[in-house]
From TrEMBL:
PANTHER family: 3-OXOACYL-[ACYL-CARRIER-PROTEIN] REDUCTASE, CHLOROPLASTIC, SHORT-CHAIN DEHYDROGENASES/REDUCTASES FAMILY MEMBER. SUPFAM superfamilies: NAD(P)-binding Rossmann-fold domains. This is Short-chain dehydrogenase. GO terms for biological process: fatty acid elongation. One of its GO terms (molecular function) is oxidoreductase activity, acting on the CH-OH group of donors, NAD or NADP as acceptor. Residues 32-215 form the Ketoreductase domain. It comes from Roseisolibacter agri. Pfam families: adh_short_C2. It comes from the Bacteria. CDD domains: SDR_c (cd05233).
Amino acid sequence: MSGPMRRPDAGLPEAAAHEIPTGREARRFDGQTVIVTGGASGIGLAAARRFAAEGARVVIADRDAAAAARAADGLRAAGAAGAAGAPCDVADEAQVRACVAEAVARFGRLDVVVNNAGLMVVKAIPDLTADDWRRVLAVDLLGAFFFIREAFAAMRPGGAIINVASVHALETTPQAAAYAAAKAGLVSLTRSAALEARARGLRVNAVLPGAVDTPMLWDNPNVRAGLEVVDRAAVGTPDDVAAAIAYLASADARFVQGAALVIDGGRLDRLGG
Ligand SMILES: NC(=O)c1ccc[n+]([C@@H]2O[C@H](COP(=O)([O-])OP(=O)(O)OC[C@H]3O[C@@H](n4cnc5c(N)ncnc54)[C@H](O)[C@@H]3O)[C@@H](O)[C@H]2O)c1
């Protein structure tokens, strides 16, 4: 291993300037079509930008139609080969089917799906309702399943699916029961889907981010109230996760199947104190 040794509590290495290389070697997705769910904000938007910078045509599938359209406009203005906003609630089977059909009709093929849309309900167990559970499971777990099922039908061999889970799938904190269970379910679904994907020439993998600098992190009511203190030195950028997603989607990862890649700057080791 190269690079200086760091004390474990010294924070993250200096963030690299997030200049995306523009050489031919960095255009791993030329001619490909990528759907990013929840692509209008945070990690999804960073992934959409990364795929576009590497040559892909990108469909931003988001429940927030206006934000999805704005994000697609931004990608086109930055020189994307193609970009479209697709209003889509991932929890709605019919909308997912329509989104995949629209992507294929518009761009001719589907190569990558990033199941990134997610939400978190922060409540103690006595306060969690059945509706809270249904909402979280419907978006964070079933939504990914709906897209995987459609992608299996639409993708040609070489296609890749990346599920955005969370370190909460492995170690969690109080007041995150539904979210942690949904993300653990998503890691399990990744394994199951990977088994069936292999025979189709497809790959399915997951990333498990730690704390990442997005609205979801700072909107967490416990973080806002100061009940959960987030050490800023241990917070990653959306680009940190996007880079890992792009790797798993690329031919560089052709031998990576069913993996659960933790992207957390070492935070998992410290969760739970
Ligand atoms: N930010 C973190 O610290 C962190 C850590 C671990 C995992 N994650 C996961 O990363 C993913 C992205 O989170 P983020 O932090 O970028 O959040 P974010 O709130 O910035 O963005 C989430 C996006 O998903 C969209 N969305 C929500 N529900 C949807 C639905 N039903 N259908 C379609 N789109 C929907 C929202 O409109 C928004 O554009 C989530 O799955 C989240 O659980 C985030």
